[in-house]
Amino acid sequence: MFEPSVFYAVMIAGILGTIGLGGGIYETFLVDRVWPSQPMLIQPARGGINRKLFWGPAHGLFEVVLLLAVWLTWAQPGIRIWIWLALAAHLATRIWSFAYFIPMALRFETEPAGDIATAHKAATKWVRLSRWRLPIEFLAVLFLFIALAKLAGN
């Protein structure tokens, strides 16, 4: 039987995941192409963008609704597996982010300590590695929409 609360939780998780994926695409293809050579673009104290204003709420809301979807689909193994796969993919990127990307981003958002060449090299590495988060988050969103399609078919 179709349960609206389950359907809407998965749908909202999919929408929020897509918004986050869109933010990642924006940063990867527009912001990340420029900021390693112009770090002031991501330094709020110097008039640059404050990425925390987007990423804090985007991830927070997505994770709350994703966990709600896990809880609501617990009794539906055919749907639950897709939600768990989405959670696993998203969790992989979040662990990687908290272990490497976030601490480095916080350093880049302040004045570079040390020489410019070393800071640029570190920023370029960060950008190169960060691109790999997009396909993983894409999988999370894809898994959510597979779950949504299966729910709609029931």
Short description:
By secondary structure, the chain is an all-alpha fold. The chain is 76% helix and 0% strand.
Number of helices: 5
Largest sheet: none
SS content category: mainly alpha
Order of helices and strands: HHHHH
What is the C-alpha radius of gyration, as a whole number of Å?
Answer: 18 Å
Q: What are the low-pLDDT stretches, counting only 5+ consecutive residues below 50? A: none
**What is the rounded distance between the termini?**
7 Å
| Overall average pLDDT | 94
Q: What's the β-strand tally?
A: 0
Portion of residues in beta strands equals under 5%
Percent helix, as a range, is over 70%
The gross shape turns out to be: elongated
Give the tags:
154 residues; mainly alpha; 0% strand; elongated
How would you characterize this protein structure?
With 154 residues, this protein is mainly alpha-helical. 76% of the residues lie in helices and 0% in strands. Helix 1 packs antiparallel against helix 5, helix 2 packs antiparallel against helix 3 and helix 3 packs antiparallel against helix 5. The mean pLDDT is 94.
